[in-house]
Design a protein that fits this description.
By secondary structure, the chain is α/β, with parallel strands linked by helices. The protein folds into 2 domains: 181 residues, Medium-chain alcohol dehydrogenases, catalytic domain (Quinone Oxidoreductase, Chain A, domain 1); 149 residues, Rossmann fold (3-Layer(aba) Sandwich), CATH 3.40.50. Helices cover 28% and strands 24% of the residues. The structure holds zinc ion (2 copies).
Length: 408
């Protein structure tokens, strides 16, 4: 079978860091860590596993972070290479181990791609898995069964989903009802990230909420708030007109693309005033009750911290890495609650039920069949055209891209 393989090496990393801006082939061309090639079809590791043929597999911000070497090296001990990339997927089960009762051959499933204690066959789960936080598993640096790897796509012993077949442990599977179309099912992984982030700091009814970002994760946060039916006012700050439009389609109240509009919205918030410091940008008294930063850059973090009201809630959904010049003043001066979020949980709590993020998402999608999520899929490519997919993802303004899927 064929698959997209990522072979991180220090010389490739150093060359791309030094010359990649001028020579993008160092990121995704022949000399890069990426290649599309023949690999061995995986076998079921034990009778608790299934084999899956992907229908669609998504290209994610975290994949782009790895390809463009933007991910912090702090996470390298929890990955192993070469790896077959990809972790966002909907596919058909093609083979089932004898211990698997949960699904049948031919069934359509999505997977929770985190390689946790249960997946590794560890008898006594680590403290993170014990709490239902499988995506924060303490065994990510590797066990006897599989080497280092937090997630499918970045583990050399388990193929990711940018391939014609991959294997998944039965605990990773979530069957998808027929009413959910393939393209929406393909968005389950990022949608779960947004849903988990919202459930970590749930906005209250009537609050003013700001969502920063024009990438997929921002839309998943908007979608989560709307699918949960939380009646709050959503302001979406993005850069480009098509990004604003997509937010409005999903039920944003105010879509804005520049700081002038942002200031106008700020000054309409309850008892909010603007003030000019001796040097630097405008500062505010008052502001948004809650901010979701879905970018994680210096500029977005700066906005998140300065636009939240006193004791406001700031949730970091974007994958912030090393930030050199961040002003922390408002965190203490406004007693902000800044919360990091990552992936999803097996034990979310919503309206009294304890449920995994993905299973709650199935319920929410079945309850809201007309919610316009398919519009978020702006491009489809075949695996062999992965370079075109990467370019369409990185040149947002030209391609007006949001979510790019590989059709396999
Ligand atoms: Zn992802
Ligand atoms: Zn664990």
């Amino acid at each position: 079978m064929k698959a997209i393989v990522y072979n991180f090496t220090v010389p490739k990393y150093v060359a791309a860091k030094a010359f990649g801006k001028r020579l993008p082939s160092l990121y995704y061309g022949k000399p890069s860590a990426l290649s599309f090639k023949k690999v061995k079809e995986p076998k079921l590791p034990t009778e608790d596993w299934v084999k899956i043929k992907p229908i669609y597999s998504g290209l994610c911000g975290s994949d782009m972070g790895a390809i463009f070497y933007k991910t912090s090296p702090a996470l390298t001990p929890f990955n192993s290479f070469p790896s077959i990339m990809g972790h966002e997927v909907v596919g058909y089960v093609t083979e089932v181990g004898v211990n698997v009762q949960e699904v049948k051959v031919g069934q359509r499933v999505i997977v929770d791609p985190y390689i946790n204690c249960e997946v590794r066959g560890v008898n006594k789960p680590c403290p993170a898995c014990e709490q239902g936080l499988q995506s924060l598993c303490r065994n990510k640096s590797g066990t006897k069964v599989f080497g280092a790897g937090m997630i499918l796509g970045f583990c050399s012993e388990l193929p990711g989903t940018w391939s014609e077949a991959f294997v998944a442990h039965k605990s990773m599977l979530v069957p998808i009802p027929d009413a959910i179309p393939d393209k929406v099912a393909a968005l389950f992984e990022p949608l779960s990230v947004g849903l988990h982030a919202v459930l970590r700091q749930v906005p209250k009814e009537g609050e003013n909420v700001l969502i920063i970002g024009g990438g997929m994760i921002a839309y998943t946060v908007i979608a989560a708030i709307r699918l949960l039916g939380i009646n709050c006012t959503l302001t979406h700050l993005s850069l480009l007109e098509y990004q604003k439009k997509a937010g409005i389609e999903l039920g944003v109240d105010n879509g804005i693309t520049n700081t002038k509009e942002l200031k106008q919205i700020m000054l309409q918030l309850p008892q909010t005033t603007s003030h000019k410091p001796l040097v630097g940008e405008q500062v505010y008294i008052g502001g948004f009750d809650a901010v979701y930063d879905c970018i994680g850059s210096e500029a977005s973090l700066d906005q998140s911290l300065s636009l939240a009201r006193e004791r406001g809630k700031v949730t970091l959904v974007g994958c912030a890495g090393e930030i050199k010049n961040l002003d922390w003043t408002f965190i203490w001066a406004n007693e902000l609650s800044v919360l990091g979020t990552h992936a999803y949980s097996k034990k979310e709590v919503w309206q009294g039920q304890e449920i995994s993020t993905q299973k709650l998402l199935v319920q929410l999608l079945l309850n809201n069949p007309d919610y316009p999520l398919e519009q978020l899929v702006t491009h489809e490519f075949r695996l062999k055209d992965y370079r075109k997919a990467i370019i369409a993802n990185s040149e947002r303004e030209k391609y007006e891209s949001i979510k790019i899927l590989f059709r396999i």
